[in-house]
Fold this protein.
Amino acid sequence: MTADSAPEHVKFAIIGSGFSGLGAAIRLQQAGHRDFIILERADDVGGTWRDNVYPGCRCDVQSNLYSYSFALKPDWSESYPSQPELWEYLQQIAARHGLARYLRFGHEVTAAWWDEQADRWLISTTKGQVSARYLIAGVGSLVEPSRPDIPGTETFAGTIMHSARWDRDWRPDGRRVAVVGTGASAIQIVPSIQPAVEHMTVFQRTAPFVVPHNNHPVKERTKVLYRALPSVQRANRVAVYWMRELLAIGFVQNPKILKRAEVVWRRHMEGAVTDEAMRTQLTPTYDLGCKRVLPSNDFYPAIARPNVSLVTEKIIEFRADGLVTADGSEYKVDTVILATGFHVTDNPMLGKVAGRGGRTLAEAFGQTYLGTVVPGFPNYFQLTGANTGLGHSSMLLMIESQLNLIVDAIEQIEAAGAGPCEVRPGVAAAYNTTLQRKLPKTVWGSGCSSWYLDSQGRNLTLWPGFTFSFRRRTRRFDPADFTIG
């Protein structure tokens, strides 16, 4: 397919080849569908676990739960999976299910719109066009790096890189490094490179809650047992699932419970940091859980080392050889690492997908139903869409729940004559009204500013409940909630 050729006609077009996109392809296969393609802008599968190759990158959910339920891996090397192992897992999954024939690498989606005359989706990519009856977006929310708008960036003579665009050739040895941010990426990067750098300055906007991590190597006898008796691994997965599900009580029902965890955090922080001024800097001013809780055993010890400085003043300017903060201080550095997160509620991809009347997903995102379908977007399905994020468990649970809904929807749409299907606006509106009534009562609505919130202060990111309640809601496609044909 070339840029000037006729569109490739398929029944299903899937965008992205991370956990969501590959999961969608596999479920379509299992349902007997073969007429689909997977559009991937990169040159390999993996999504965020392909892109984030910074030192120390690791998932904060246990390996046995952060994997497909239909493809357990008995030989995880650690109880919490590292980025290289997760990427390899996804590559193995794609190979095991023969997805190479469906993958279109180097096909970045530049636009997608609903053709009302043809009742099909037209998708433009950097290598041509695709026409599809159904469009399944598995793009994910942690894909587009967010970079701070700081004057003078172009004058900086050293290296600037975002954590999600890591330069594999860069080495920390003898460097003077600035790490901007103290979120999930930073707390893994800082201790990974601290021993090698000459000096590191960590610029913190808001102190995070960093709690003890219980990651450990998986024993060889455990791997042997899992291979011989898969039911044992499934039992462990169930145990981990319910252990994490209990955390949702504190997040969404009774945030006061989380005060007990703050005692654990304080003991953890003060055990590594003895300087009183730094302890004050590292003490959050919001309730635990309002922002993402971060597990690490080595962040606090690393930040307390003599070659590390913690700065809480705002950066106002880049200069050729360093950074300047609001109090006039200048910090000489040769490398700036932006651990500044992603565009989540304002993901640029949302502006590239247009439904009926040219309305974009960016305009309609707050009306998403079950995080999966949107009024005015016929035959369109969104994986990890609005309000499907979790603060306590594995996103694979949400993705597989959504896939249950999608596969059942397609079966019923096809049985009804394959006419365009879209959720009724009233159904979506009522659903979102209920969500936005619940969310302010959760710990995420307790007053802090976070990437969970959009520009209007709405939480369009997280699911305010247990994963089993979402699984129940998405178990079946209800035709009464939709118009078909």
